[in-house]
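Here is the promised in-class demo. Please do not try to memorize the tokens; focus on the logic of going from shape to residues.
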């Protein structure tokens, strides 16, 4: 058995874990915008605080069971904005994992929706919550809203977590965000971002989500920015993201080494340095990129977060995983009935 620090999932949506099994949408989405309209924007408007709580607990549990002790979350619930980030933070604390959350501001629900989203970020962070300022994406925001979010982040001394050029619909992001970004920003996806863009920040690569949405391959090795690995809401298993990131890179360049994708996984510790103090003992050794790229089913046996054992013999110690799965399933049924 081998030991590593706690892993960091650099882009997650804890609110999305109740989506699996949802009823088929009214129409078949044929574009990225269509996927947002048919699936995610119907789901997020139906969320209430109870659903958010159990969705976050389920996602936090699955992260812990994959050795991920730090989650960079991007949250949206347009009909349950106020208090939502605290619900997410409490859910993760109960399970025993760390979270750095943000409310994704958007103009899709009018100026009042954007204002309330900004206010939720301000409230959570100024009350001491571990947060960033969230923006959904530049293509759903006016320049005024983007500037307000960037100014709020400056005022609070934090970065901004935003989706950038995930699909072709967001190709104007480099223009709309010109002059606003800093090294503290987190830029999720960047699939359609030109290589010679001028945006500052860490690029968050989510290979499984990009394949699932048929948006293309980001090929993040082409960027000068730091790159970190996320799941975009499809579980919390960063080793799975690493393995996929490696073979995706290999598919366009047969000389690629798994060490590159592993270095992206390690960038997670720059975003949540506290996770580097956590200890994960694994079912496999050595935890080396050349081994892990070709080894499936590696799982944590013991996890220690902030000096406290939160998983022992492969089982969470702070919560009952059977209860979390049962309650999440009840909330999923409520959510699906609203769609
Ligand atoms: Zn995302």
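The designed amino acids, position by position:
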């Amino acid at each position: 058995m081998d030991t590593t620090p706690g892993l960091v999932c650099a882009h997650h949506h804890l609110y999305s874990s109740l989506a699996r099994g949802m009823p088929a949408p009214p129409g078949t989405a044929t574009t990225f915008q269509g996927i947002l309209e048919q699936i995610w924007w119907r789901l997020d408007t139906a969320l209430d605080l109870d659903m958010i709580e159990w969705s976050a607990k389920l996602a936090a549990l699955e992260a812990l069971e994959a050795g991920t002790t730090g989650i960079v979350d991007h949250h949206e619930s347009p009909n349950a904005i106020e208090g939502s980030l605290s619900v997410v933070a409490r859910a993760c604390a109960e399970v025993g994992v760390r979270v750095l959350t943000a409310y994704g501001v958007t103009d899709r629900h009018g100026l009042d929706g954007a204002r309330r989203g900004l206010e939720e970020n301000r409230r959570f962070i100024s009350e001491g919550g571990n947060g960033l300022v969230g923006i959904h994406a530049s293509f759903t925001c006016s320049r005024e809203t983007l500037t307000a979010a960037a100014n709020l982040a400056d005022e609070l001394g934090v970065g901004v977590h935003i989706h950038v050029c995930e699909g072709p619909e967001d190709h104007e992001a480099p223009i709309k965000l010109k002059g606003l970004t800093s090294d503290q920003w987190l830029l999720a996806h960047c699939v359609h971002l030109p290589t010679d863009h001028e945006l500052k920040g860490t690029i968050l690569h989510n290979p499984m989500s990009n394949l699932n949405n048929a948006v293309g391959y980001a090929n993040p090795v082409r960027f000068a920015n730091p790159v970190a690995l996320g799941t975009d809401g499809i579980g919390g298993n960063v080793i799975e993201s690493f393995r996929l990131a490696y073979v995706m890179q290999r598919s366009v360049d047969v000389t690629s080494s798994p060490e590159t994708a592993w270095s992206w996984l390690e960038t997670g510790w720059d975003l949540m340095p506290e996770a580097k103090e956590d200890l994960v003992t694994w079912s496999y050794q050595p935890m080396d990129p050349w081994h892990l790229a070709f080894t499936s089913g590696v799982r944590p046996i013991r996890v220690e977060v902030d000096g406290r054992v939160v998983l022992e013999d492969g089982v969470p110690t702070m919560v009952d995983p059977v209860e979390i799965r049962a309650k999440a399933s009840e909330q999923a049924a409520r959510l699906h009935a609203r769609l």
